[in-house]
């Protein structure tokens, strides 16, 4: 008896979408370089926190006005940057951001000459207006430099490059600003450093003005993205207003709390090292302490003092940012196999555990947990950003601006929530970011979903 055969359709594994396209490579390189520049600008502020405490004699809580000026500028510039790039395009938006960045850096010179904390904050605010503009422009710009399905990877990879700038900030600042002793009002190192930064940033802005940017598809091109007749395949619910997209609204909320936790972690990192590293812990962790003490003698303690020197604490801060950079490269790879929202939920839970350990000030055990915080929250910002921009079509430029405005959390939380607690106990202030990580976890677990679109199983 002959067996009948049925022809079944062949199944082939779906290849991951390409990272970008050849025509976008040069533009992609320039845009990614912007991430490195604002990483440098942001973490340099955390070095200034400690320096202003010493040289200008401001309290821990008041020194956090550096974060208020920096991240408050993100909030102020969010919508203007969105309107500007919608009207004039991404390239001119980048040039505007770099111009404000360079101007703010140069304003640091007369501010340092005046030894005025208020004037320094104004200069930092102008500089950070440039950072906020760059961030608002760069994310939707990257989103359009290739297949929308690979935007998570492009954005997370770019934030890994941002880590290079973030690592450089404490290293450069520790060397130029915190090394050695400084007389009251001596801000000469700040003047030299920011003159160099302003010159480099201005030169990059000039170079980018001559780059020919290839046309992006209609969904990402300012001026055409607003068309109601756009047939871009990812413009789901194009008839909805922006705030009817619940996944976007929750992305703004999650980014607010995420940046609050990140800003607070960075603002008091050096204070944690100088306040606790070297103080004797309880008997429960004597073994860990002895190993940590041996290591601390290797890297150098402040001469004659029972804690880390300012510049050494800054170098540990830089080490923690190396962990953040590694986390982003690893996250870029893992998102080929793990859904971004699941990765986000996992790292949020991990950081809840890290904060609990940091708050106990168990010597090197807690300090290691403080360093590990950066590794775990490395992918939070880019994942929240990319999930929030999914399937927004014509709304992408404005949505990017609103998500950038969520960075105001890093302005408010260090000064007004963690600051008063840190003046009493820096360690106990690290209980507070736990609230933020709970919100991020809920976004990754529940609220990331795009209405009318089923998430892909992985």
Automatic annotation (TrEMBL):
Subcellular location(s) per record: Cell inner membrane
InterPro entries for the chain: MFS, MFS_trans_sf, MFS_TsgA-like
Topology of the protein relative to the lipid bilayer: Multi-pass membrane protein
Pfam families, A to Z: MFS_1
Domain of life (superkingdom): Bacteria
Segments passing through the bilayer: 24-43, 64-84, 90-109, 116-137, 157-178, 190-211, 312-331, 343-362, 368-387, 399-417, 429-448
UniProt keywords, alphabetically: Cell membrane, Membrane, Transmembrane, Transmembrane helix
SUPFAM superfamilies tied to this protein: MFS general substrate transporter
Matching PANTHER family: L-FUCOSE-PROTON SYMPORTER (PTHR43702), PROTEIN TSGA (PTHR43702:SF3)
Protein name: Sugar MFS transporter
Organism whose genome encodes this protein: Hymenobacter bucti
């Amino acid at each position: 008896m002959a067996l009948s055969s049925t022809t079944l359709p062949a199944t082939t594994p779906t290849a991951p979408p390409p990272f970008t396209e050849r025509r976008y490579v040069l533009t992609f390189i320039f845009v990614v370089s912007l991430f490195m520049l604002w990483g440098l600008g942001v973490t340099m502020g955390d070095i200034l926190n400690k320096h202003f405490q010493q040289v200008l004699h401001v309290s821990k809580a008041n020194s956090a006005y550096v974060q208020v000026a920096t991240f408050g500028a993100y909030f102020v510039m969010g919508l203007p940057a969105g309107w500007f790039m919608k009207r004039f395009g991404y390239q001119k938006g980048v040039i505007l951001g770099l111009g404000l960045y360079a101007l703010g850096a140069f304003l640091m010179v007369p501010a340092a000459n005046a030894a005025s904390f208020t004037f320094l904050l104004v200069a930092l605010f102008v500089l950070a207006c440039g950072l906020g503009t760059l961030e608002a422009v760069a994310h939707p710009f990257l989103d359009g430099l290739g297949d929308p399905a690979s935007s998570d990877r492009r954005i997370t990879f770019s934030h890994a490059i941002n880590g290079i700038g973030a690592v450089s900030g404490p290293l450069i600042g520790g060397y130029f600003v915190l090394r050695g002793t400084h007389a009251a009002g001596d801000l000469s190192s700040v003047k030299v450093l920011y003159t160099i930064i302003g010159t480099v940033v201005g030169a990059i802005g000039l170079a980018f003005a001559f780059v020919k940017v290839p046309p992006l598809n209609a969904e990402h091109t300012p001026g055409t993205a607003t068309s109601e007749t756009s047939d871009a395949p990812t413009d789901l619910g194009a008839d909805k207003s922006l705030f009817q997209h619940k996944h976007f609204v929750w992305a703004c909320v999650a980014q607010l709390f995420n940046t609050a936790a990140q800003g607070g972690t960075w603002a008091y990192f050096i204070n944690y090292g100088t306040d606790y590293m070297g103080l004797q812990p309880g008997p429960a962790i004597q073994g860990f302490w002895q190993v940590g003490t041996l290591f601390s003698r290797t890297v150098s303690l402040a001469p004659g003092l029972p804690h880390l020197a300012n510049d050494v604490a800054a170098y540990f801060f830089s080490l923690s940012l190396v962990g953040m950079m590694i986390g982003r490269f690893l996250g870029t790879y893992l998102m080929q196999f793990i859904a971004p929202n699941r990765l986000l939920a996992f790292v949020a839970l991990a950081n809840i555990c890290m904060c609990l350990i940091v708050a106990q000030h168990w010597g090197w055990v807690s300090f290691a947990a403080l360093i590990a915080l950066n590794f775990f929250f490395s992918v939070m910002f880019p994942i929240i950003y990319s999930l929030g921009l999914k399937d927004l079509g014509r709304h992408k430029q404005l949505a990017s601006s609103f998500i950038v405005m969520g960075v105001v959390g890093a302005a408010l939380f260090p000064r007004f929530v963690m600051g008063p607690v840190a003046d009493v106990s820096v360690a106990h202030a690290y209980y507070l970011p736990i609230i933020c990580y709970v919100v991020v976890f809920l976004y990754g677990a529940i609220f990331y979903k795009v209405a009318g679109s089923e998430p892909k199983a992985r």
